[in-house]
């Protein structure tokens, strides 16, 4: 294979400039070199290729048929080189590429609306893709490099993962409007009948957290709501009571007062929300900064009024 060391990108740029300006002097001025220098480089390129790129006369420069084919390919090469340069710049700043985030179902629909606009303002060139799955699947996916980060309410089991806590989300006690505890702003934990608490289905980590709070020993207990939305509907229908993460109260007004909401006294009842990434990820410093941006967003007044409700 013939070596290409005889042609440089600068030679291609010179040839394209001559073709576009149709004049060696004007092309030289555009490229910031002397006319003899650009003429010499074009001649060297023609000698290397074994063909003439231009027809020359005292008044004009015209691209030959062979030259047109060479220059078309030269434009492609210059374009690909620019793409390579842009790619290397974007790789040096991964927050201008795509970030795939996995979030558990009891967090995703309630947190994401608070994050979209501020994150778009902070990272205007970042494309964010959201995957919603239960915790075990998310951990498997991030360990398998299918996800960049995950947001969960539990610490991961895999040692290869690092954790940053984003915020603490309190629980509220919800019950049907005709429940004996309804109508009070605050209910003490000791007043709540734990047997009335409806659990989520087993795939949700919030189920095991609620069962632990209620001191339910039998983890195989059947039944439960498949989602927080279904859980809210069951409370509205009078099927029982529920501990709801406070952000999931968004939109609860559609139940038109059928659900009574209460703060819980007698302890700190809630869950910590974590952002998790691989400790081996070379983007780790950027991901830590991303986590800190989310922490800042959760501390802004617009979101604190939900978390501190």
TrEMBL record:
Residues 7-64 form the HTH lysR-type domain. InterPro entries: LysR_HTH_N (IPR000847), LysR_subst-bd (IPR005119), WH-like_DNA-bd_sf (IPR036388), WH_DNA-bd_sf (IPR036390). Transmembrane segments: none annotated. GO terms for molecular function: DNA binding; DNA-binding transcription factor activity. It comes from the Bacteria. Keywords: Activator, DNA-binding, Transcription, Transcription regulation. One of its GO terms (cellular component) is protein-DNA complex. CDD domains: PBP2_OxyR. Belongs to the LysR transcriptional regulatory family. This is LysR family transcriptional regulator, hydrogen peroxide-inducible genes activator.
